[in-house]
């Protein structure tokens, strides 16, 4: 199993979190179900492996498009993989996809939307080249080119919404939205409307998504033990254990102890 993240060039860093390549060239001996918590990032994915299924609150285990755009995930979801794994992706900073491509992100929350339906026939050229590429370097270069073309066409500038959304990510969701609004000297109603347009969910809800997503990644990488629940609750700003369990279960669909014990989540493969 090969998975690796690659940082974007400096001019794309306000808008792109990373590029990634995920491959398993052998045929999986048996179908693999991998669960992922919401991460707080939108992405564009090109799949050159075996088609796979996704189950979520909106998707009922059907095959996802070969190349797709995904907005904010608001709940945990599962990938059902079989055959060979081969995909590359662009993970965007929370407002980056809108800033670069201008799409209303609230329309894409919890969805896997065919990329050709959104961006047109130009997707086919990149899809073919990515599939035909003979190295990871070639595929990475094609991803950068794909974003750079739009960057040069759009000449984007990160605005206050980008700044606020990126700050929520950097603070792992542990931030007071009222303080952010005061710091930016913006009207709350205008800020919330713009945030919904650019990120896909409300600012307050996004802090909760980012907090639980980062927490799940910490649990997946075994940085916390079950005996450390009280320290974890304090570290992530929950009022008490019942608040922590309620919030966790709302997003993940299971209690934290069951998640740690039984779950083969995506973070075991897609390490940060």
From TrEMBL:
Pfam families (UniProt xref): DUF6597, HTH_18
Annotated HTH araC/xylS-type domain residues: 171-262
Keyword Transcription regulation attached: yes
PROSITE patterns, per the entry: HTH_ARAC_FAMILY_2
Protein name (Swiss-Prot/TrEMBL): AraC-like DNA-binding protein
Entry keyword annotation includes DNA-binding: yes
MF terms in GO: DNA-binding transcription factor activity; sequence-specific DNA binding
Key words of the record: DNA-binding, Transcription, Transcription regulation
